[in-house]
Design goal:
Elements (H helix, E strand, L loop, with lengths): L4 H20 L5 E9 L6 E12 L3 E3 L5 H7 L2 H22 L5 E5 L2 H4 L4 H12 L6 E6 H5 L2 H14 L2 E7 L6 H6 L4 E4 L1 H4 L6 H16 L3 E4 L8
Parallel strand pairs: 2-4, 4-5, 5-6, 6-7, 7-8
Antiparallel strand pairs: 1-2, 2-3
């Protein structure tokens, strides 16, 4: 290929973002937002998903799409992920006192975090420090993160299950979506990807696929979460 200045510009921007991200934690620029998960049967908030945001000094509030890839490439995803876990569990402790029904917290876990040999111990320590029971924590991970090393992932998930933590399979229906992993991995919850939910009021094919996933979850005794429900019709 021929050199183009845009190549250098893009690399330069990524390097600058990486260096700024290194200081984001120590400068208190990260914050956690909580997306409610509603029980369709009762209409009340049953859980919430912890979502990290970066209060960038010049770019404004950045969603994970703007910096998570850089965090993963640079290895910063591990300290950021551990910080989000602790922040979310601290909030869960507040909720346990504030509401009269159980509210669980969902925290996303990257493939890089799953590769940490002491990840289960990190989770157990965070739960103990927050003073909350393990049943309040659901760890969300994508299928692609689990299958990079399926044997290692299965051992890790079993360790997490021993602690009492629940496992949610995120973005189900995208990527590999192999049913064999549902059979072999100890998953508690299946999250239907938003791309299937968007068009179910008008698309018979999308509706049929969602119906099939609901049936699958029911037969396997998995909870089901529909991502990104925004309208009454959905």
């Amino acid at each position: 290929v021929f050199y183009d200045q845009a190549m250098s510009d893009e690399v330069g921007e990524q390097l600058e973002l990486r260096d700024e991200l290194r200081h984001a934690l120590e400068r208190d620029q990260l914050e956690v937002h909580y997306q409610p998960i509603i029980d369709a049967a009762t209409g009340r908030v049953a859980a919430a998903e912890a979502l990290v945001r970066w209060k960038h000094p010049s770019k404004g509030l950045l969603s994970p799409a703007g910096f998570i890839e850089v965090a993963e490439q640079s290895g910063l995803i591990n300290p950021i992920g551990n910080w989000v876990l602790r922040e979310a569990l601290a909030m869960a402790a507040v909720w346990q006192e504030a509401v009269d029904h159980p509210v669980t917290i969902h925290v996303n876990v990257s493939a890089h975090q799953l590769k940490q040999g002491d990840f289960a111990q990190t989770v157990e320590t965070a739960l103990r420090d927050a003073g909350v029971p393990s049943r309040v924590l659901d760890l969300e991970m994508t299928e692609s993160a689990m299958i990079e090393d399926s044997a290692r992932a299965q051992a890790l998930l079993e360790s997490l299950k021993t602690i009492g933590v629940k496992i949610a399979l995120d973005d189900f229906g995208t990527g590999f979506s192999s049913l064999s992993y549902l059979k072999s991995l100890p998953v508690d919850t299946i999250k239907i990807d938003k791309s299937f939910i968007d068009d179910i009021p008008t698309s018979e094919r999308d509706a049929a696929l969602v119906d099939a996933i609901l049936t699958l979850g029911d037969r396997l005794d998995n909870d089901i979460i529909a991502e990104g429900v925004e309208t009454v019709q959905q």
